[in-house]
Backbone:
């Protein structure tokens, strides 16, 4: 009945077939009459405007109001996953953003980062590294504050002969954290390149720990 209402005989098709976007092949419409561009994943479809069956797509009417068209989607019997409103086939690799690469697997998906998650420790030439977003680049990059570089140059210019460019201030070293064996002691001091108060630690040893009784085997 639907075919009789929508399909006219004989066929009247345009002389020149339509030019399809990349990834959309020419196929016969639902009446088997004229060539049209196959609808792709997520595009609207109906009886006449068919989906690309070579990609395993069918016209899904499950979420469409009665009497309206559907949306091209994968068949229900095929495992897939939905990310940001788009459905991917099982095993398909995709990038939801330039920073992630994901793989659809058994109804879910796993992702790996495409940006390096390295950690940059402070160094004398870059004491306070920061990771910032660079316009035009996907992954953030490490930079050094220009203010810190200027402070270092100014401090060296004021007191070039001292190991640190300020008068020493600090607390006494604390007691060792361990009652035997190796521990650490801490203090607050300003003896650093920028004369900033910071907590410093050093190793300490009070004495050797007593040996375990012979009844207890040594644990490596």
Residues:
């Amino acid at each position: 009945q639907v075919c009789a209402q929508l399909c006219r005989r004989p066929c009247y098709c345009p002389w020149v077939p339509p030019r399809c976007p990349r990834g959309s092949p020419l196929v016969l419409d639902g009446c088997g009459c004229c060539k049209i561009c196959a609808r792709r994943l997520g595009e609207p479809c109906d009886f006449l405007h068919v989906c690309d069956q070579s990609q395993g797509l069918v016209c899904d009417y499950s979420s469409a109001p009665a009497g309206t068209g559907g949306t091209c989607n994968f068949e229900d019997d095929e495992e897939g996953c939905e990310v940001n409103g788009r459905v991917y086939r099982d095993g398909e690799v995709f990038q939801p953003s330039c920073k992630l690469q994901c793989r659809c697997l058994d109804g879910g998906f796993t992702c790996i980062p495409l940006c390096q998650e390295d950690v940059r420790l402070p160094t004398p030439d870059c004491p306070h590294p920061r990771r910032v977003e660079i316009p035009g680049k996907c992954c953030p990059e490490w930079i050094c504050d220009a203010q810190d570089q200027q402070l270092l140059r100014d401090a060296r210019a004021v007191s070039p002969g001292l190991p640190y460019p300020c008068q020493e201030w600090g607390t006494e070293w604390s007691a060792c954290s361990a009652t035997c064996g190796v521990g650490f002691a801490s203090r607050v001091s300003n003896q650093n390149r920028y004369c900033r108060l910071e907590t410093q630690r050093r190793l300490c040893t009070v004495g050797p720990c007593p040996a375990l009784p012979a009844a207890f085997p040594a644990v490596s």
Remarks:
- The longest strand covers residues 182-189.
- Residues 146-158 form the longest helix (13 residues).
- The chain is about 10% helix and 30% strand.
